[in-house]
Amino acid sequence: MQMEQSFLTTFAYAKINLALAIPGILEDGYHELQSVMQSIALHDIVRVRRRGEKVVCRCGALSGSGNLAYKAAVLFQEQCGLSDGIEIEIEKNIPVQAGLAGGSTDAAATLRLLNQLYEEPLDREVLLALATRCGADVAFCLQGGTMWATGRGEQLELLPTAPKLDLVLIKPFAGVNTREAYRRFDEVGQCGHLTRTDWENALTQRSTQRIADLLYNDLESASIQMVPQILKFKQLLLEAKCYGALMSGSGSCVFGIAQGGQHAIEVAGQLRKKGFKNVWVTTTVAEVRG
């Protein structure tokens, strides 16, 4: 009787955008992006093993072929010429439609685990190319840390590693559909621009206040139109003496940079006392390792 293979397991870390600008439209019609992307400690748990004859992805209500982790597994199989059954289990902690790359990071973790399971058949460049085919955020989540993203978000370059930032995250009950956020931006938004050297200097100096002063997101006004509570949550975080607050990605999650770990716990407690349930305390993390 064949023994059942055990799972390989890893954390799949969420991300925030410390800054996100849309300078214009690319020739292919996609929005041009500039972004400072940052991994945070809030994570899902992803497990992968060989089993059966097809790809199976279990993730509660997000199970099945629509999950990006499923797509990642199929792309990996095609690239390696495999026909094995693959079982993926995902324990969700990262909220969806939040701007935290919850689906993308699960896909990235699946690629890392499959490459480990099959004894590293793909080198870093091929794995990154597969990740980009899954989605722009997947390529970032495969590497993590602090990165400068351009193009559609898939062109990634290392930035100086951010200092440890203590964060409070709060998400409205309503999420934001990314495609709808960009459509609204086209109607009401104004194109912005980030200066990379400003970010390099702030990160090199490891100045929390300078980082907070540079927080920026061109999509905020569009997403606030759809979910006005985003603005309210920003104001609550600033009133609680966070260094700065910003909506991450297309939203609807908002993060505040606290004055330290104890301050983050206190701010989160105040928000929960006001009746808000979707509140997390977390920190930034450095480069993701498989």
Topology:
Blueprint: E1 8-25, E2 31-50, E3 55-58, H1 68-80, E4 86-91, H2 102-117, H3 124-134, H4 136-143, E5 146-150, E6 155-158, E7 166-170, H5 178-188, H6 196-205, H7 208-213, E8 216-217, H8 220-226, H9 229-239, E9 244-247, E10 254-257, H10 261-273, E11 279-283
Parallel strand pairs: 1-8, 3-4
Antiparallel strand pairs: 1-2, 2-4, 2-5, 5-6, 7-10, 7-11, 9-10
Helix pairs in contact: 1-2, 1-3, 2-3, 2-4, 3-4, 5-8
Top keywords for this entry?
290 residues; alpha+beta; Ribosomal Protein S5, domain 2; Alpha-Beta Plaits; 2 domains; seven-stranded mixed sheet; four-stranded antiparallel sheet; 37% helix; 27% strand
Protein model, in words:
This protein has about 290 residues and is an alpha+beta fold. The chain folds into two domains: about 10-160, 2-Layer Sandwich (Ribosomal Protein S5, domain 2); about 165-285, Alpha-Beta Plaits (2-Layer Sandwich). The protein has helices spanning about 70-80, 100-115, 125-135, 135-145, 180-190, 195-205, 210-215, 220-225, 230-240, 260-275, and strands spanning about 10-25, 30-50, 55-60, 85-90, 145-150, 155-160, 165-170, 215, 245, 255, 280-285. Strands 1, 2, 3, 4, 5, 6 and 8 form a seven-stranded mixed sheet that branches. The mean pLDDT is about 95.
